[in-house]
UniProtKB/TrEMBL annotation, chains A, B:
CDD domains: HTH_LacI (cd01392), PBP1_LacI_sugar_binding-like (cd06267). The keyword RNA-binding does not apply. PANTHER family: HTH-TYPE TRANSCRIPTIONAL REGULATOR GALS, LACI-RELATED TRANSCRIPTIONAL REPRESSOR. InterPro entries: HTH_LacI (IPR000843), LacI/GalR-like_sensor (IPR046335), Lambda_DNA-bd_dom_sf (IPR010982), Peripla_BP_I (IPR028082). This is LacI family transcriptional regulator. Residues 7-61 form the HTH lacI-type domain. Keywords: DNA-binding, Transcription, Transcription regulation. It holds the Pfam family Peripla_BP_3.
Length: 349, 349
DNA sequence: TTGATTTTTGCAAACGTTTGCATAAATTTA
DNA sequence: TAAATTTATGCAAACGTTTGCAAAAATCAA
């Protein structure tokens, strides 16, 4: 390995016959350094092509100006959008973002938590895996007063800052909408109940049914990983015998899209014979035909709230207090997949 | 800021009456440490809950076991897929990945390069912005013998390791396919020529036309940012006067999808009146109706080749030699958007 | 001009880990 | 048993930056 060519503050100090501490303070705009000295130092730094060594500064400060983000997958629309918003906002505060993927594996999430701690990130932002029910691997951050913010998929009984969509209301609105559009036999395809987010959407689904005196039928509720493959298998079950349902509320858009595709193969017309509502407003729901109704979770707003909460925690390192969950509004976007029946009657003049 | 509770190797050394150098060597499986000592050290480390400080090790070694990745946007299908593959492969080698987005901004790319250098990443993987034509900001990595690998959007005259799809062939196949399906008036919507990848796809387009004695018409070639908005504006131009083209080859799928949507609004039938081919096999091309033909770039293969090349460079830090570009195959996926005309004739018995 | 006060800078140590070289301890050989 | 050789461990310094405390320099007031 050839010798490094990198300049350090020692080089600057020698060129100007100053101490390294003066150079460091000048480069960091310390108020106790004269403007004249500061100017000389910065000029020489530019002349020598000096670049700071973040590892050294981080070691000394025990801070890295870096935030760790753990999401299940960046190929999913919602996490990718939020990641982008978070990165752009953090940049305004001079922080850098390390994006990590758990691939929905609990073991990988633990490894990532340890790795990010070892890298001394100044804060952690997490959307958990589908299967994370024990959150003790995050204790190391909380014990050391390093801020942690959870978003979307969040812990249930773990006192930490949480920012989530209104999942209960989302499930309620999606189901009520289907009912308003005439559906009386509504399937709900949910994610696994190990993840609290889906528990709430199911609760919203049940509430809407109850409010309209529609019985909750256990064989119209499915719990699964929300992948295309799982959705396809679930469709086989749903449409294996008549009577078919007249509405389906899917807890993510990949599932809703798959239901649509399955109906195409068995010649069930959407929305005439079956109405569909998805979740998260994935861009695909707009371009598919017919476009799919979906619950929008405002990822941009969530991303911004996440960063604001994180900055607040970083800048006010008081002892941990009780955290109140922060709820981001949701909105049902009605599209053709759940359109009202077309009236075939004509009034005579 | 409260006092840290973290244990260091000094704590382990004191507990066992060993030197810190022995503890360090034991934890790193140095062959000069006895198995008995190694076991005692590792056991005590576990007992004390020791976690290494990556900043300290990185500073001492001038290595961080971290790779920096710069892509235009992670919300785009191709970069997101490659990022995921790269991260998973790097994990097998004990490396961590920092994913950064340039948001297609040259200035942001420069800032990210400097930041990643400051963080002392052991290697850099880059897909450049649309507008990067001066690559000197990467010199700092090459001067310091830190491996750099470019993929997809790559430099043209800059001696560095490059892994890219066969863009020339992709443009050629897409256009030939349209010709074989009967198109004679083919539009090509390209990205900006500041990016070499699009230069090659245009060249393939032109070659296919020439081989079939179809004149290249300048008003059937468009250069733009490949966004939905730009594509919509371009469609307005294309379909502002007759005769309309009978085929469109778009240099990315977002553009192809937008063309399809535009045709729906002006009642141009796809594929009967206009055939469409996109690029990158975005999942949306499959679920839209009719499904869009698209050039698949095998992102998984590309991601694996990127990591393999990077590992080779990291493990063989010889002086820079001439690099040969590595070409990843592509394949045209024919779908209904470019289907052959349906024959309406019936033979009489 | 001298003393008091304020501003600016330097010394030395800290941060946690790794490793070259020297030395101590253990093992082998004569 | 002594000498030679091998194995295992310790000392000290390195890595680049930051900062508490002390001291030097500059400025102000009497």
């Amino acid at each position: 390995m050839s010798k490094r060519t990198e300049k350090t503050i020692v080089d600057i100090a020698e060129e100007l016959n100053l101490s390294v501490s003066t150079v460091s303070r000048a480069l960091n705009d310390n108020p106790n350094i004269s403007a004249r000295t500061k100017e000389k130092v910065k000029k020489m730094a530019r002349k020598l092509g000096y670049r700071p060594n973040a590892l050294a500064a981080g070691l000394r400060n025990n801070k890295s100006k870096t935030i760790g983000l753990i999401v299940p997958r960046i190929s999913m629309f919602f996490p990718a959008t939020i990641s982008t918003i978070i990165q752009n906002k953090l940049q305004e505060y001079g922080y850098h973002l390390i994006i990590c993927q758990s691939n929905d594996s609990y073991e990988q999430e633990i490894a990532l938590v340890n790795t990010l701690y070892s890298a001394r990130v100044d804060g952690l932002v997490v959307s958990t895996t589908l299967y994370t029910t024990d959150f003790s691997h995050f204790d190391i951050f909380r014990t050391n007063n390093i801020p942690v913010v959870f978003f979307d998929r969040v812990p249930k009984d773990y006192d930490v800052k949480v920012i989530k969509g209104d999942d209960y209301l989302g499930g309620y609105l999606a189901t009520s909408h289907l009912i308003e559009r005439g559906c009386r036999d509504i399937v709900h395809i949910s994610g696994p109940l190990s993840c609290n987010l889906y528990v709430e959407r199911v609760a919203g689904y049940k509430k809407a049914l109850q409010q309209h005196q529609i019985p909750v039928r256990k064989n119209r509720l499915f719990y699964q990983e929300l992948t295309r493959e799982s959705a396809w298998q679930t469709c086989k079950k749903i449409f294996s015998q008549k009577p078919y349902p007249d509405g389906i509320f899917a807890s993510n858009d990949t599932t809703a899209i798959t239901v649509m595709e399955y109906c195409r193969t068995i010649k069930v017309k959407v929305p005439e014979e079956l109405k569909i509502v998805g979740y998260s407003n994935d861009p695909r729901t707009e371009i598919i035909s017919p476009p799919i109704s979906s619950v929008d979770q405002y990822p941009a707003m969530m991303g911004e709230r996440v960063v604001a909460a994180l900055m607040e925690l970083i800048n006010s390192p008081t002892a941990a207090t009780k955290f109140t969950p922060e709820i981001i509004p949701i909105q049902l976007l009605e599209r053709e997949s759940s359109a009202a029946p077309v009236k075939h009657g004509r009034k005579k003049k």
